[in-house]
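In the lab's daily routine, each protein ends up as an entry in a very long ledger. A line of letters takes care of the sequence, but it says nothing directly about the fold. The fold becomes a row of whole numbers, each drawn from a learned catalogue of backbone shapes. The protein below has been through that process, and both of its lines are reproduced in full:
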Amino acid sequence: MVIRKIEQKDNAVVGKIVRNVLLELGAPKVGTAYADPSVDFMFETYAKERAIYFVVENNGEIVGGAGIQQLDNGEATICELQKMYFLHEARGLGLGAKMISLCLEKAKEFGFKQCYLETMPFMVDAQKLYNKTGFYNINGSMGNTGHSYCSVWMLKDL
């Protein structure tokens, strides 16, 4: 497995992974990342200051990814862990923890003080991973992500 920064040529594959995983998990198309126009342009979305998106390759095939950037309509000291999705065959291998660690390391380098994330209530395994990596539940959403279906909000002090 190789973890690297996203390249423009990865856009279509990453967009397909995000949408396929959401459908596999039974998430709605509205109110989740499925409807985000940025999913089709991940390279461009993260090609700015204080933002980065990583992909994981297995034998040259992208099997997942995750990124961070400043929380939309949030304080300049708060980033968001975003669009962390892995194909079924890449789950349970410790990649999620590695990606979170790498993203949080970059968040600190970028000067963020906290990291926010949103997830769906039925994504229990993801929540366990987030808790294990130091995220804690908060009582409401932050910023303006547009993900109305994501009703579990978490934060981590960096």
